[in-house]
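Supplementary Text 2. Reproducibility record for the structural model of the 352-residue chain.

All settings were left at their defaults, and a single model was retained for analysis rather than an ensemble. We include the record here because the model underlies the residue-level annotations in Supplementary Table 4.
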Amino acid sequence: MTDIGKKKATIYDLSMLSGASPSTVSAVLNGSWRKRRIKEATAQLIQKLANEHGYTANLQARGLRSSRSGLVGLLLPVHDNRYFSSMAQSFEAQVRSRGQCPLVVSACRDPEEERQVVETLISYSIDELFIAGATDPDGVHKVCEKAGLKHVNIDLPGTLAPSIISDNHEGARMLTQAIIERAQEDGPLSPDDLYLFGGRNDHASHERIRGFRDVKRALLGADPDVCIQPTGYSPAMTARAFEAFYEGHGKLPRAFFVNSSINLEGLMRFLALHPHETFADIIVGCYDYDPFGSFLPFPVFMIRQDSETMITKGFAILDADRRPPITHLVRPTLVPPRTALTGPLDALKDIE
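Retained model, structure tokens:
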């Protein structure tokens, strides 16, 4: 028996230990053993030996042989956001199910950082890239195109590569209608009683504001410009906007639409500094989903974006021969108050 205690095991070492051929060992380790009709008992033995002897695939060497590294990248704007963390979880699960290795990085909503991060990923010979919520998706596209890297936009669209995004206009329509109908259970709602806080100069915010205004005009008859309070994706700026409104009016609006969970955090910061009476009768809609938000002491309607479907569609586009730069819309889901949904983390095995 080969002494492999002082070095990493190779396919040939595992072949000698298991009594299987090197090609059989390779098929088990790359996940193609079922297609080759290799016995499950043989596959389990090889996998067990690989774990015991610290076998790891040499991805760089594999890339030299096949022109593919097995690495797939996801570029996020931020990590500390439930929507993007859920997207990353769905991405990692789907990449691994394809026998590849996921790489997830962020660029902090900085267009120059986005390009530099992508250049670094390209230096690692990644096979494909998902570009999520990029500030400058077309700038990232040019870096990818120059390197011949297959890529797709997620969450925010570009004009030069295919994009898969939430139907933000329809989601905002659903959320605004739910807010209005719930508020009207307590009496008539005037156009001045419904505000929108949050968002920035990006496609998603523009579409959400458009959907908000469409429904507000249809159901309430008007939509004063003052009722739109853009704050960017900043908890601190959102908290200041609520504080300024409160100081000017002596109360909060009866109902309001907040543009993301980041803006909802700003609302929480404001509420923490004020008595319960300040928010005893408000109705809130949040264009993001967080199960904790659903159980606040006032009604919170939420929009859950379907990141799993977006990732699935992204892979389908990357696998296609032709990838025209069109935008594909994915319908989100309205989540009523007092609702906790399952998510990507439910797929993880329990750790004892």
